[in-house]
Amino acid sequence: MSTRDYDLVVYGATGFTGRQAAATIQRSGGELRWCIAGRNQTKLEALRDELGLGQLPIEVADALDEDAIDKLVARTRVLLTTAGPYAKFGELLIAACARHGTDYVDITGETPWIRDMMDRYHAAAVATGARIVPFCGFDSVPSDIGVWFMVQQLRERGTGTVLVRGVHRSKGGFNGGTLATAMNLAETGMDRRLSDRRLLDPPETRDGPKLRADPRAAEYSAELGRWTVPFFMGPVNSRVVRRSAALSGLWGAPYGEAFDYEERMGFGKSGLGARAFTVGLGLALGLLGAAWGRSLLKPILPKPGEGPSEETMDGGFMKVDLLAEGEDGTTLRGRLSAKGDPGNRVTVALLCACALSLVHQRDALPGGSERLGFLTPATAFGQVLLDRMRAEGMTLELTEP
Protein backbone atom coordinates (compact mmCIF):
# COMPACT_ATOMS: atom_id res chain seq x y z
CA MET A 1 0.00 0.00 0.00
CA SER A 2 1.37 3.40 -0.95
CA THR A 3 2.35 5.67 1.93
CA ARG A 4 1.30 8.70 -0.11
CA ASP A 5 -2.01 10.41 0.57
CA TYR A 6 -3.29 10.23 -3.00
CA ASP A 7 -3.18 7.88 -5.94
CA LEU A 8 -4.05 10.75 -8.28
CA VAL A 9 -4.21 14.53 -8.19
CA VAL A 10 -6.22 16.34 -10.88
CA TYR A 11 -4.46 19.70 -11.10
CA GLY A 12 -6.04 22.67 -12.89
CA ALA A 13 -9.41 21.12 -12.15
CA THR A 14 -11.45 24.32 -12.45
CA GLY A 15 -10.43 25.03 -16.07
CA PHE A 16 -12.52 24.04 -19.08
CA THR A 17 -10.67 20.77 -19.63
CA GLY A 18 -9.94 20.18 -15.95
CA ARG A 19 -13.65 20.16 -15.07
CA GLN A 20 -14.26 17.47 -17.67
CA ALA A 21 -11.29 15.46 -16.42
CA ALA A 22 -12.54 15.57 -12.83
CA ALA A 23 -16.00 14.41 -13.95
CA THR A 24 -14.45 11.57 -15.95
CA ILE A 25 -12.30 10.38 -13.05
CA GLN A 26 -15.33 10.46 -10.74
CA ARG A 27 -17.32 8.40 -13.24
CA SER A 28 -14.77 5.84 -14.39
CA GLY A 29 -11.72 6.05 -12.17
CA GLY A 30 -12.54 3.01 -10.08
CA GLU A 31 -11.44 2.70 -6.49
CA LEU A 32 -8.76 5.26 -5.76
CA ARG A 33 -7.74 8.03 -3.41
CA TRP A 34 -7.79 11.28 -5.33
CA CYS A 35 -8.34 15.00 -5.08
CA ILE A 36 -8.92 18.09 -7.19
CA ALA A 37 -6.33 20.82 -7.00
CA GLY A 38 -5.65 24.34 -8.25
CA ARG A 39 -4.93 27.82 -7.04
CA ASN A 40 -8.43 29.00 -6.03
CA GLN A 41 -10.16 27.45 -3.02
CA THR A 42 -13.55 29.00 -3.79
CA LYS A 43 -13.60 27.75 -7.38
CA LEU A 44 -12.51 24.28 -6.28
CA GLU A 45 -15.29 24.10 -3.71
CA ALA A 46 -17.83 25.26 -6.30
CA LEU A 47 -16.62 22.58 -8.73
CA ARG A 48 -16.87 19.90 -6.06
CA ASP A 49 -20.48 20.91 -5.41
CA GLU A 50 -21.29 21.18 -9.13
CA LEU A 51 -20.01 17.66 -9.85
CA GLY A 52 -21.49 16.14 -6.70
CA LEU A 53 -18.11 15.01 -5.42
CA GLY A 54 -19.20 15.00 -1.79
CA GLN A 55 -16.30 15.49 0.59
CA LEU A 56 -13.60 14.82 -1.99
CA PRO A 57 -10.38 16.45 -0.78
CA ILE A 58 -9.34 19.81 -2.20
CA GLU A 59 -5.73 20.95 -2.38
CA VAL A 60 -4.77 24.58 -3.02
CA ALA A 61 -1.42 25.21 -4.68
CA ASP A 62 -0.49 27.95 -7.12
CA ALA A 63 1.48 26.59 -10.09
CA LEU A 64 4.10 29.32 -9.54
CA ASP A 65 4.53 28.61 -5.79
CA GLU A 66 7.44 26.18 -5.65
CA ASP A 67 6.99 25.20 -2.00
CA ALA A 68 3.25 24.54 -2.37
CA ILE A 69 3.73 22.51 -5.55
CA ASP A 70 6.53 20.48 -4.01
CA LYS A 71 4.41 19.55 -1.01
CA LEU A 72 1.44 18.62 -3.19
CA VAL A 73 3.42 16.46 -5.62
CA ALA A 74 5.20 14.65 -2.79
CA ARG A 75 1.81 13.40 -1.54
CA THR A 76 0.61 11.72 -4.76
CA ARG A 77 1.59 8.77 -6.92
CA VAL A 78 0.31 10.31 -10.18
CA LEU A 79 -0.22 13.93 -11.19
CA LEU A 80 -2.64 14.81 -14.00
CA THR A 81 -2.45 18.45 -15.03
CA THR A 82 -4.56 20.49 -17.44
CA ALA A 83 -3.15 23.87 -16.36
CA GLY A 84 -1.78 25.58 -19.45
CA PRO A 85 -0.10 27.14 -21.22
CA TYR A 86 2.32 24.60 -19.79
CA ALA A 87 5.33 26.74 -20.66
CA LYS A 88 3.91 29.29 -18.19
CA PHE A 89 2.50 27.02 -15.50
CA GLY A 90 4.07 23.59 -15.89
CA GLU A 91 7.75 23.59 -15.02
CA LEU A 92 7.47 23.46 -11.23
CA LEU A 93 5.06 20.53 -11.53
CA ILE A 94 7.43 18.54 -13.75
CA ALA A 95 10.44 19.43 -11.62
CA ALA A 96 8.65 18.25 -8.47
CA CYS A 97 7.52 15.01 -10.13
CA ALA A 98 11.09 14.30 -11.24
CA ARG A 99 12.35 15.07 -7.74
CA HIS A 100 9.82 12.89 -5.89
CA GLY A 101 9.42 9.98 -8.31
CA THR A 102 5.82 10.96 -9.07
CA ASP A 103 4.31 9.93 -12.41
CA TYR A 104 3.01 12.75 -14.61
CA VAL A 105 0.59 13.20 -17.53
CA ASP A 106 -0.55 16.29 -19.42
CA ILE A 107 -2.09 17.35 -22.75
CA THR A 108 0.52 19.80 -23.95
CA GLY A 109 1.42 20.25 -27.60
CA GLU A 110 4.31 22.58 -26.70
CA THR A 111 7.16 20.51 -28.10
CA PRO A 112 9.88 23.19 -27.66
CA TRP A 113 9.00 23.49 -23.99
CA ILE A 114 9.04 19.72 -23.51
CA ARG A 115 12.48 19.62 -25.17
CA ASP A 116 13.67 22.08 -22.51
CA MET A 117 12.04 20.05 -19.73
CA MET A 118 13.73 16.87 -20.95
CA ASP A 119 17.11 18.54 -20.95
CA ARG A 120 16.59 19.78 -17.39
CA TYR A 121 14.76 16.94 -15.64
CA HIS A 122 15.02 13.65 -17.56
CA ALA A 123 18.04 12.39 -15.62
CA ALA A 124 16.42 13.20 -12.27
CA ALA A 125 13.18 11.48 -13.28
CA VAL A 126 15.06 8.34 -14.28
CA ALA A 127 16.95 8.37 -10.98
CA THR A 128 13.76 8.61 -8.88
CA GLY A 129 11.70 6.21 -11.05
CA ALA A 130 9.21 8.78 -12.38
CA ARG A 131 7.40 8.37 -15.68
CA ILE A 132 6.87 11.78 -17.25
CA VAL A 133 4.39 11.43 -20.12
CA PRO A 134 3.31 14.61 -21.93
CA PHE A 135 1.17 14.70 -25.12
CA CYS A 136 -1.61 12.55 -23.64
CA GLY A 137 -4.55 14.17 -25.46
CA PHE A 138 -5.55 14.57 -29.09
CA ASP A 139 -1.98 15.83 -29.27
CA SER A 140 -0.60 13.22 -29.73
CA VAL A 141 -2.15 9.88 -28.69
CA PRO A 142 -4.07 9.10 -31.91
CA SER A 143 -0.97 9.63 -34.06
CA ASP A 144 1.44 7.94 -31.64
CA ILE A 145 -0.67 4.89 -30.77
CA GLY A 146 -1.95 4.63 -34.35
CA VAL A 147 1.58 4.44 -35.76
CA TRP A 148 2.69 2.06 -32.98
CA PHE A 149 -0.21 -0.25 -33.93
CA MET A 150 0.70 -0.23 -37.63
CA VAL A 151 4.35 -0.95 -36.81
CA GLN A 152 3.25 -3.94 -34.70
CA GLN A 153 1.10 -5.21 -37.56
CA LEU A 154 4.01 -5.08 -40.00
CA ARG A 155 6.37 -6.60 -37.43
CA GLU A 156 3.99 -9.56 -37.04
CA ARG A 157 4.28 -10.02 -40.81
CA GLY A 158 8.06 -10.18 -40.53
CA THR A 159 9.08 -6.76 -41.74
CA GLY A 160 10.16 -3.39 -40.42
CA THR A 161 8.41 -0.15 -41.34
CA VAL A 162 9.68 2.38 -43.86
CA LEU A 163 6.89 4.94 -43.69
CA VAL A 164 3.52 5.57 -42.09
CA ARG A 165 1.30 8.37 -43.40
CA GLY A 166 -1.47 9.61 -41.13
CA VAL A 167 -4.43 11.51 -42.60
CA HIS A 168 -6.72 13.20 -40.08
CA ARG A 169 -10.37 14.11 -40.42
CA SER A 170 -12.29 15.64 -37.55
CA LYS A 171 -15.13 17.86 -36.39
CA GLY A 172 -15.16 19.90 -33.19
CA GLY A 173 -14.24 23.20 -31.62
CA PHE A 174 -11.40 25.00 -29.84
CA ASN A 175 -11.29 25.91 -26.17
CA GLY A 176 -9.65 29.02 -24.82
CA GLY A 177 -6.81 27.15 -23.17
CA THR A 178 -5.67 25.63 -26.46
CA LEU A 179 -5.72 29.01 -28.15
CA ALA A 180 -3.87 30.65 -25.26
CA THR A 181 -1.15 28.03 -25.66
CA ALA A 182 -0.81 28.78 -29.37
CA MET A 183 -0.58 32.48 -28.57
CA ASN A 184 2.10 31.88 -25.96
CA LEU A 185 4.20 29.80 -28.36
CA ALA A 186 4.17 32.68 -30.81
CA GLU A 187 4.71 35.41 -28.22
CA THR A 188 7.72 33.69 -26.66
CA GLY A 189 9.31 32.77 -29.99
CA MET A 190 9.15 29.05 -29.19
CA ASP A 191 7.18 28.51 -32.41
CA ARG A 192 10.41 29.08 -34.36
CA ARG A 193 11.73 25.78 -33.00
CA LEU A 194 8.77 23.78 -34.28
CA SER A 195 10.50 23.22 -37.62
CA ASP A 196 13.20 21.01 -36.04
CA ARG A 197 12.14 17.55 -37.23
CA ARG A 198 14.23 15.83 -34.55
CA LEU A 199 13.26 18.23 -31.78
CA LEU A 200 12.22 15.49 -29.34
CA ASP A 201 14.75 12.84 -30.34
CA PRO A 202 17.17 11.54 -27.71
CA PRO A 203 20.67 13.00 -28.22
CA GLU A 204 21.96 9.61 -29.42
CA THR A 205 19.64 9.58 -32.44
CA ARG A 206 19.68 13.18 -33.63
CA ASP A 207 22.12 12.33 -36.44
CA GLY A 208 19.90 9.58 -37.84
CA PRO A 209 18.70 9.12 -41.44
CA LYS A 210 17.29 12.11 -43.30
CA LEU A 211 13.61 12.74 -42.53
CA ARG A 212 10.79 13.84 -44.80
CA ALA A 213 9.99 17.54 -44.76
CA ASP A 214 6.72 18.69 -43.19
CA PRO A 215 3.99 18.87 -45.86
CA ARG A 216 3.48 22.36 -47.24
CA ALA A 217 1.24 21.79 -50.27
CA ALA A 218 -2.09 20.18 -51.14
CA GLU A 219 -1.71 16.65 -52.48
CA TYR A 220 -4.05 14.06 -53.94
CA SER A 221 -4.11 10.66 -52.20
CA ALA A 222 -4.91 7.88 -54.64
CA GLU A 223 -5.21 5.41 -51.76
CA LEU A 224 -7.91 7.47 -50.04
CA GLY A 225 -9.48 8.96 -53.14
CA ARG A 226 -9.38 12.51 -51.82
CA TRP A 227 -7.20 15.58 -51.61
CA THR A 228 -5.12 16.16 -48.50
CA VAL A 229 -3.67 19.35 -47.05
CA PRO A 230 -1.05 20.18 -44.39
CA PHE A 231 -2.34 19.44 -40.88
CA PHE A 232 -1.55 22.22 -38.43
CA MET A 233 -0.79 19.71 -35.66
CA GLY A 234 1.50 17.65 -37.88
CA PRO A 235 4.71 19.38 -36.74
CA VAL A 236 3.80 18.39 -33.17
CA ASN A 237 2.49 14.86 -33.71
CA SER A 238 5.29 13.81 -36.06
CA ARG A 239 7.94 14.79 -33.50
CA VAL A 240 6.24 12.69 -30.83
CA VAL A 241 6.00 9.69 -33.17
CA ARG A 242 9.64 10.06 -34.11
CA ARG A 243 10.65 10.11 -30.44
CA SER A 244 8.71 6.87 -29.96
CA ALA A 245 10.57 5.33 -32.88
CA ALA A 246 13.93 6.60 -31.64
CA LEU A 247 13.40 5.31 -28.10
CA SER A 248 12.19 1.94 -29.38
CA GLY A 249 15.31 1.67 -31.50
CA LEU A 250 17.53 2.36 -28.49
CA TRP A 251 15.69 -0.39 -26.62
CA GLY A 252 16.34 -2.94 -29.36
CA ALA A 253 12.93 -2.86 -31.07
CA PRO A 254 13.33 -0.42 -33.98
CA TYR A 255 10.31 0.61 -36.00
CA GLY A 256 12.52 0.30 -39.10
CA GLU A 257 16.07 1.07 -40.17
CA ALA A 258 14.95 4.27 -41.94
CA PHE A 259 11.48 4.77 -40.42
CA ASP A 260 9.62 8.03 -41.01
CA TYR A 261 6.15 9.46 -40.41
CA GLU A 262 4.19 12.07 -42.33
CA GLU A 263 0.92 13.66 -41.28
CA ARG A 264 -1.73 15.46 -43.29
CA MET A 265 -5.42 16.36 -43.08
CA GLY A 266 -8.08 14.93 -45.38
CA PHE A 267 -9.90 17.58 -47.36
CA GLY A 268 -12.24 16.31 -50.07
CA LYS A 269 -12.62 15.94 -53.83
CA SER A 270 -11.76 19.48 -54.91
CA GLY A 271 -8.16 20.17 -55.78
CA LEU A 272 -8.89 23.88 -56.12
CA GLY A 273 -10.49 23.95 -52.69
CA ALA A 274 -7.56 22.06 -51.17
CA ARG A 275 -5.08 24.52 -52.62
CA ALA A 276 -7.14 27.48 -51.43
CA PHE A 277 -7.34 25.99 -47.93
CA THR A 278 -3.57 25.53 -47.85
CA VAL A 279 -3.02 29.18 -48.76
CA GLY A 280 -5.55 30.24 -46.11
CA LEU A 281 -3.83 28.10 -43.48
CA GLY A 282 -0.52 29.74 -44.26
CA LEU A 283 -2.06 33.18 -43.93
CA ALA A 284 -3.69 32.26 -40.61
CA LEU A 285 -0.41 30.96 -39.20
CA GLY A 286 1.32 34.11 -40.42
CA LEU A 287 -1.30 36.21 -38.63
CA LEU A 288 -0.73 34.24 -35.43
CA GLY A 289 3.01 34.71 -35.75
CA ALA A 290 2.80 38.51 -35.94
CA ALA A 291 2.24 40.68 -32.86
CA TRP A 292 -0.29 42.85 -34.69
CA GLY A 293 -2.10 39.75 -35.89
CA ARG A 294 -2.40 38.34 -32.38
CA SER A 295 -3.75 41.67 -31.16
CA LEU A 296 -6.51 41.38 -33.76
CA LEU A 297 -7.31 37.77 -32.87
CA LYS A 298 -7.33 37.93 -29.07
CA PRO A 299 -10.60 39.89 -28.65
CA ILE A 300 -12.59 37.49 -30.85
CA LEU A 301 -11.22 34.10 -29.73
CA PRO A 302 -12.42 32.07 -26.72
CA LYS A 303 -10.73 32.97 -23.43
CA PRO A 304 -9.13 30.42 -21.04
CA GLY A 305 -11.97 28.64 -19.24
CA GLU A 306 -14.26 28.98 -22.26
CA GLY A 307 -14.94 26.36 -24.92
CA PRO A 308 -17.45 24.74 -27.25
CA SER A 309 -21.02 23.94 -26.24
CA GLU A 310 -22.02 20.49 -25.00
CA GLU A 311 -23.83 19.97 -28.31
CA THR A 312 -20.70 20.77 -30.31
CA MET A 313 -18.53 18.51 -28.18
CA ASP A 314 -20.98 15.61 -28.31
CA GLY A 315 -21.47 15.98 -32.07
CA GLY A 316 -17.80 15.90 -32.99
CA PHE A 317 -15.66 13.05 -34.25
CA MET A 318 -12.14 12.15 -35.30
CA LYS A 319 -10.75 9.65 -37.80
CA VAL A 320 -7.14 8.95 -38.70
CA ASP A 321 -6.37 6.86 -41.77
CA LEU A 322 -2.99 5.16 -41.41
CA LEU A 323 -1.14 4.07 -44.55
CA ALA A 324 1.91 1.93 -43.73
CA GLU A 325 4.71 0.66 -45.96
CA GLY A 326 6.95 -2.22 -44.89
CA GLU A 327 10.61 -2.69 -45.73
CA ASP A 328 9.70 -5.73 -47.85
CA GLY A 329 7.06 -3.83 -49.85
CA THR A 330 4.07 -4.91 -47.74
CA THR A 331 1.39 -2.20 -47.49
CA LEU A 332 -1.28 -2.03 -44.81
CA ARG A 333 -4.07 0.41 -44.11
CA GLY A 334 -5.61 1.10 -40.71
CA ARG A 335 -8.04 3.53 -39.14
CA LEU A 336 -8.43 5.02 -35.68
CA SER A 337 -11.89 6.46 -34.96
CA ALA A 338 -13.54 8.13 -31.98
CA LYS A 339 -16.79 9.94 -31.32
CA GLY A 340 -16.80 13.39 -29.74
CA ASP A 341 -14.96 16.67 -30.21
CA PRO A 342 -11.26 15.74 -30.61
CA GLY A 343 -9.85 18.69 -28.66
CA ASN A 344 -12.22 18.25 -25.74
CA ARG A 345 -14.19 14.99 -25.41
CA VAL A 346 -11.53 12.77 -26.99
CA THR A 347 -8.67 14.61 -25.30
CA VAL A 348 -10.21 14.21 -21.85
CA ALA A 349 -10.94 10.52 -22.40
CA LEU A 350 -7.35 9.89 -23.52
CA LEU A 351 -5.79 11.94 -20.73
CA CYS A 352 -7.75 10.10 -18.06
CA ALA A 353 -7.01 6.74 -19.68
CA CYS A 354 -3.28 7.51 -19.48
CA ALA A 355 -3.49 8.63 -15.86
CA LEU A 356 -5.53 5.59 -14.82
CA SER A 357 -3.09 3.28 -16.60
CA LEU A 358 -0.40 4.61 -14.26
CA VAL A 359 -2.65 4.39 -11.22
CA HIS A 360 -4.09 0.91 -11.75
CA GLN A 361 -1.80 -0.90 -14.20
CA ARG A 362 1.70 0.44 -13.70
CA ASP A 363 3.15 -3.05 -13.24
CA ALA A 364 1.61 -4.13 -16.56
CA LEU A 365 3.09 -1.26 -18.58
CA PRO A 366 5.80 -2.08 -21.13
CA GLY A 367 9.47 -1.93 -20.37
CA GLY A 368 9.54 -2.09 -16.58
CA SER A 369 12.43 -0.20 -14.99
CA GLU A 370 13.94 0.40 -18.43
CA ARG A 371 11.26 2.93 -19.32
CA LEU A 372 11.53 5.87 -16.99
CA GLY A 373 11.90 9.60 -17.40
CA PHE A 374 10.32 11.40 -20.35
CA LEU A 375 8.28 8.97 -22.42
CA THR A 376 5.69 9.18 -25.16
CA PRO A 377 2.19 7.68 -24.93
CA ALA A 378 3.18 4.76 -27.16
CA THR A 379 6.40 3.94 -25.28
CA ALA A 380 4.86 4.47 -21.83
CA PHE A 381 1.59 2.61 -22.32
CA GLY A 382 1.43 0.60 -25.55
CA GLN A 383 -1.25 -2.09 -25.50
CA VAL A 384 -2.52 -1.06 -22.05
CA LEU A 385 -3.61 2.31 -23.42
CA LEU A 386 -5.04 0.81 -26.61
CA ASP A 387 -7.19 -1.53 -24.52
CA ARG A 388 -8.48 1.41 -22.50
CA MET A 389 -9.19 3.39 -25.66
CA ARG A 390 -11.23 0.53 -27.04
CA ALA A 391 -13.10 0.25 -23.74
CA GLU A 392 -14.03 3.93 -24.21
CA GLY A 393 -15.59 3.11 -27.60
CA MET A 394 -12.64 4.12 -29.79
CA THR A 395 -11.64 1.79 -32.62
CA LEU A 396 -8.24 1.03 -34.13
CA GLU A 397 -8.05 -1.72 -36.71
CA LEU A 398 -6.77 -2.69 -40.12
CA THR A 399 -9.10 -1.79 -42.97
CA GLU A 400 -9.45 -2.90 -46.56
CA PRO A 401 -8.08 -0.57 -49.27
% residues in beta strands: 15-25%
Number of helices in the DSSP assignment: 15
Q: Which term fits the overall shape?
A: globular
Overall radius of gyration: 20 Å
Helix content class? 40-55%
Mean pLDDT: 94
Biggest sheet strand line-up: 3-2-1-4-5-6-13
The computed structural class is alpha/beta
Low-confidence stretches: none
Number of strands: 14
How far do the termini sit from each other?
50 Å
CATH architecture descriptor text of the largest domain: 2-Layer Sandwich
CATH topology of the largest domain: Dihydrodipicolinate Reductase, domain 2
Instruction: Kindly give the count of domains.
Output: 2
**Biggest sheet: strands, sense, closure?**
7 strands, parallel
Give the arrangement of secondary structure elements:
Elements (H helix, E strand, L loop, with lengths): L5 E6 L4 H13 L5 E5 L2 H10 L7 E3 L5 H8 L2 E6 L4 H4 L1 H10 L2 E3 L5 H18 L2 E3 L7 H16 L4 E11 L4 H13 L30 E3 L4 E5 L3 H17 L9 E9 L2 H19 L1 H7 L12 H5 L2 E10 L4 E9 L2 H20 L11 E2 L2 H5 L1 H9 L3 E4 L3
Parallel strand pairs: 1-2, 1-4, 2-3, 4-5, 5-6, 6-13, 7-10
Antiparallel strand pairs: 7-11, 8-9, 9-10, 11-12, 12-14
Helix pairs in contact: 1-13, 3-5, 5-6, 7-9, 10-11, 13-15
